[in-house]
Amino acid sequence: MAKATTPVDLTITPRDRRFGRGAPIRRWWLNDDPIATAFYNALSVTFPKGEGYFVDSVRRFRDGTPPKLTAEINAFIKQEVIHTREHVAFNRHVTDQGYDVAPLIADVDAALALTKGRPPIASLAATTALEHFTAMLAHELIANPRHLAGGDQQAAALWQWHAAEEIEHKGVAYDTWLHATRDWPRFTRWRVKSLVMLITTWRFFTGRARGMTELLRQDGLTGPRIWARMAWYAFGNPGMARKIAGVWAAYFLPGFHPWKHDDRALIALAESDYEAAVLPVEKRAVATA
Q1: Which InterPro entries match (predicted)?
Q2: Distance of CA 233 to the CA centre of its chain
Q3: Would the pLDDT of 252 be above 80?
């Protein structure tokens, strides 16, 4: 059986899009559901600092990589920089609704500080694990339209665009990790990446749960009934956490590679949706310029 690698014909294309500029957004913008809205809002708050961390972690190991990987790292960096810009804008909508996101940002700072003072390879291992998370979420987000059903058009388009690019560059951090650890024994590489994934998984779920809980608290929604609704949203319907469980577990298998599952067809599917949402707004802007 051939070893899975990044497709040789893959092209990583930064798509310089802008979403929601001047467009109103509801407080509970996703189907008037405070739980669903809190999930995406809490996740978005993590992105500006998180994606900066990803960029720095991968860029440290760019020198000496094969030319194809070097080009992919450069495109990955451009995509992540644009993602950061758009989520800064989206997060402005969140704070405009009266939410205080300072506790969520402090949580992100604490999580990123875990690798502070450690060798750069530790940050790359964490980035590799988190990029697998974003790729899993991106696949499910596009493959199952129910996740964004009923969402404000521009907000939904932002998440579809972001998801498409996360799928497209899902192998970059992992390929960089493989290159950086090419002289390591296979078991050592597996042990380190597996341990980091377990820690990352715990931090990811507990961090997002705290973020959601805090935003919902600011909506006056607290207590066991709300916690039960959060659990049902994650593991019941639409069940994002439940549906990514198998792909998450695959990370620990020998011979794992993100592109063992080639889901590039979802990129075109997402593009058709966010183009429909973005272009009318751009055309209106041109018409009134």
Answers
A1: UCP07580
A2: 18
A3: yes
Distance CA 22, CA 83 (A): 18
Measured in whole angstroms, how far is the alpha carbon of residue 60 from the centre of its chain? Answer: 21
CB 159 within 8 A of CB 47: no
Distance of CA 176 to the CA centre of its chain: 18
pLDDT digits (tens, 9 = 90+) for 103-147: 999 999 999 998 989 999 999 999 999 999 999 999 999 999 999
- Token pair in block for residue 284: 């209106």
Q: Which residues of 50-59 are buried (b: 16+ CB within 10 A; e: fewer)?
A: bbebbbebbe
Q: What is the architecture of the domain spanning 34-288?
A: Up-down Bundle (1.20)
Contacts of 271 (CB under 8 A, 6+ apart): 161, 164
239: left (phi over 0), alpha (psi -120 to 50) or beta: left
Q: CB atoms < 10 A from the CB of 149, how many?
A: 12
Average pLDDT over all residues of the chain: 92
What contacts 288, CB < 8 A, 6 or more positions away?
Answer: none
pLDDT digits (tens, 9 = 90+) for 19-68: 988 778 899 999 999 999 999 999 999 999 999 999 999 999 999 999 99
Residue 60, judged by CB atoms within 10 A of its CB (0-12, 13-18, 19+), counts as: middle
| Angle subtended by helix axes 102-112 and 186-218, to nearest 10 | 170
Residue 151 β-bridge partners: 30
Under the banding of pLDDT at 50, 70 and 90, the label for residue 11 is very high
Q: CB of 172 within 8 A of CB of 57?
A: no
Confirm if 277 and 156 have CB atoms less than 8 A apart: yes
What is the pLDDT at residue 21? Answer: 84
